[in-house]
Task: structure prediction
Amino acid sequence: MAPESVTPASGSDGGSLFGRSVRRIEDAALVTGRGRFVDDIRFPDAAHAAFVRSPHAHATIRSVDVSLASKVKGVLAVFTLDDFRPLLAKERLAVGLPSPSYRQERDRPVLAGAEVVHVGEPVAIVIAESRYIAEDASALVEIDFDLLPAVADCRAALAPDAPLVHSDSPHNELAAFELAYGDVEGTFAAAPHVFSDTFWQHRGGSHSIEGRGCVAVYDGVREKLTLFSSTQAAHSARDVLVDLLGWDETRIRVRTPDVGGGFGPKVVFYQEDVSTALATMLIGRPVRWAEDRREHFIASTQERDQYWDVEIAVDDDGRVLGLRGSMIHDHGAYTARGINLAYNSALVVTLPYDIPAYRMGVTLALTNKVPSTPVRGAGHPQGIFVMERMLDRAATELGIDRAEIRRRNLVPAEKIPYERPLKSRGDTFVVLDSGDYPACMEEALRRCDYDGFRERQARARDEGRYIGIGVANYVKGTGRGPFESVSVKVGTSGRVLVHTGAAAMGQSTRTMLSQIVAGQLGGDMDLVEVVTGDSDGVPIGIGGSASRQTVTAGSSAAIAATEVREKLLALAAIMLEASPEDLEIAGGDVRVKGVPDMKVGLGKLANSVGGTPGYTLPGGIDPGMEATGNFLVDDLTFCNGTQVVEVEVDIETGRVTFLNYVVRHDAGIQINPMIVEGQVIGGAAHGIGNALYEWMGYDENAQPITTNFAEYLMITAPEMPSFDLSHMASPSPLNPLGVKGVGECGLVPATSAIIAAIEDALSPFGARLTHSPVTPAELVALVHAGAK
Amino acid sequence: MGEKREITVSINGKTYTEEVEVRFTLADFMRQQLGLTGTHLGCEHGVCGACTILFDGQSARSCLMLAVQANGHEITTIEGIAPSEDELHPLQEAFRDNHGLQCGFCTPGMLTTLLEFLRDNPDPTEEEVRIAISGNLCRCTGYQGIVAAALDAAQRLREANGA
Result:
């Protein structure tokens, strides 16, 4: 479908909503404790589940003895894969993200059978009258393990003599692919300068403050299963259950209550979801499960490690001629979300810059760890880090200013829209669709007084203080298609009912949709009820990931609401004997402009096309006051931005303090600037955590060693900088609203800019930083090494 | 089932007398036995702060206390902050107006922590606010909206009290 112009209705009837920082419809319930999160759902006869998990990274299971656990008072049942088999059409969770790059299929089993391949892998589920009893009993399930060698390091995994992650594998290579364009060999052979570097990049987990959870209810009379789940993708969860159980869709409903943060890993369907569902059918009572934080560390997916070897070819003026290299990605023990995390990393590297030749060979290595899947940012921060750090390297080597080398290489505005010879995973070429990257960077530099920085730095050094500046540009593809379904209906109640496959996990999705819909239907957001994450709400849906929903669901909502608006006006024109152009929608009525008493209520209009048996619909109008939008889009729309960060490093303690944090950002048209700002700053906070605090550690036996919030550090309020946040607004040409996604964008360049700034601060000590996160101890060691 | 004791607690001004398992945490007692699900559990090891309540007016982690320890004490949770069903406390209003929440999961602990803080320090600096909530994790907001909400609430409360 070609983008059509949906102009927000103007004037008195709602147009002023679009682009305004209106209050969120989510908040009244959430600030009074009346939210309804998955663990708040109460069924009086619900039983509680606890999972028995592998304490080993790799082992064969010789036997599982549940007899002791089953005897504990209050235990209702203990189930293993053998108990579930009769109910299952398939035993493994298919992930449905195809790629020709796979060397082997590694879908997760519903519960581990003969072998466990990571710490935290579920082996059995204990159902009891309380969570306390279920957890007590789970410690009494006796599993006889034969330990096998484990693979902790994804580089070591690929060595010819490496132990096998799965004992039935020929090797540990999960997938491999290459992204390339241009004459890479020729470019490097002729290049005046080639510099090489090795990067280790690490990102931790999601750490939504709410863990995962589910409540499964089976209605034995109607033979219908309902799974309440904290998922980011209700429809896809339903479809996985359809696949596993071999049932049809009418018998399975997945509903998502309020979700306490998603950030990626909740888009994955997990063993716990299906096990809880199976258990409810076997015991005939609702079953609930809430993940605890340790389980989040060991059993929810995370991002972890990438190792890059990269070469950059530049001319004497710092123009980048080519970039090439290889990357090894820690995939974990199973495939839980395709290969897209590593793919995103390799795809994004050169996109902000006009670089003629590129080749990146990527290998996804199996390790004996929980699977890696996207966390907010989804591999993009790593790809951006490689490019930005290589630019800094070349700048240093050639004696060119770091901003200047970027000026010479950024994709110029006049080339936009710019098709790049790289394909996104949907097999379409990447097109940088809009934006002015150089102008964005210049303004960010200006706002940080970049030109005055070297003087500030010199003054600081005179005082014995070490300050540095870092610059990072990025683009990120957002609004991943192909669509998101939204239906808009005016009920006979006069209320506007919106159903969507989109998911709400804190990004203000319901406000965004109601702002768009109310904008077309009279401007009263209180009249709009938005239902997200209900697989029975709309027939098809995709859910919340990849900064996609404002683009896809927002556009669908605008299309559907416009259609309903036109129908309301056409019908009211007949009933009020007026021309549709003379009508407006306001206060729950359609009325004649300037004659507020000549009006008809939305509920009455809906009722008159709702159908009364035997009576003709007025004026040949179609039945029902509703419309469904499925705005189709294949191409990603790219948001872009620049972060310029000024830090001070305390060389005694390694403490990093932010002196200046400039965020310049272009996500197209803003529907609600307050929400956009919240998303960008929240993303940047996560990026600071990735640069300075968050490390998901494993020992050499792949045993996780950071499994609580004392060992794994999250950023808290005192460490946060105050931001200088400003926006550009290059409308996306790819959707009728001109919007781009914003959920991940504040995060993507943060690590690059921060690490660059720290390196710059410590340049008197010859510091070169090629990894993230960096710890205070490492910085102090760098100072000591450099001072010698 | 484990041993039970009878306890009497006042929560948000309402007195509850209940038999509770001695090993139940206060958070589980409130959430599971009393249905007061406004208090959230984010880590269950006392770091994230989502479960923070006011215990005799002092902020405390309800995941790190046993329900029986609350016998004879007064508790305020997020459900008890608003003055009435259809009215919000100025702190709640300020959270709404300053985008002090996104997913809302950390909000119960943020509100109770700040309620105590603003009572004891009605005219705080931004830095003092940041330190006050340094024991509460938020993954969504980057804390900026929360800090702005706290400063805004302080002003609203000062104006209300001064008037």
